[in-house]
Amino acid sequence: MRHEVKFTGFGGQGIILSAVIVGRAATMYDGKHAVQSQSYGPEARGGASSSTVIISDEPIQYPKVLEPTIYVIMSEAGFLKFGAGASPEAVMLIDSGLVQSRPECRCIEIPATMKAKDILGKPIFANIIMLGALVAATGIVSEEAMQKAVLDSVPKGTEDLNMKALRLGIEIASNGGE
């Protein structure tokens, strides 16, 4: 098993943190191998941001993503830059309120930012909703591993809301999205 995952959006959405959490879930709690990398524009918030993680049952010899098998896209600019050329075999999770374009591959629409605002009160939880959807849609890591990795990674005092966000993403994706 080997998955190459590309996360993209804009600065401030937790794109890099998302890949770090997935890598942590894979290595620390699911006994898999993972390598993570990132890139972002010079702007602290609002600029382009992307991050990748490779997860494998075997040691990873080459740490660059060559052909993502899974995409998590949280902005239209991210889709246009990284997702528009996705292979037809890929799986793409998109934040349906922020991404207007649709790919040729399997697409799962997750209204993450809208649900984060409406249900949790803050859009900052959208990335954790997307992580829950990622787990439910792909099984790339176990739900238990993701829960532990999220709890390890979020600021103290936000654990309950982050767990609600994770469960919400799992529920939305389990129901086919939207």
Automatic annotation (TrEMBL):
GO terms for molecular function: 2-oxoglutarate synthase activity. Residues 11-171 form the Pyruvate/ketoisovalerate oxidoreductase catalytic domain. The chain crosses the membrane at residues 124-142. Its EC number is 1.2.7.3. The keyword Phosphoprotein does not apply. It comes from the Archaea. Keywords: Membrane, Oxidoreductase, Transmembrane, Transmembrane helix. It is an enzyme of class 1 (oxidoreductase). InterPro entries: 2-oxoglutarate_synth_KorC, PorC_KorC, Pyrv/ketoisovalerate_OxRed_cat, Pyrv_flavodox_OxRed_cen. This is 2-oxoglutarate ferredoxin oxidoreductase subunit gamma. It comes from Methanocalculus chunghsingensis.
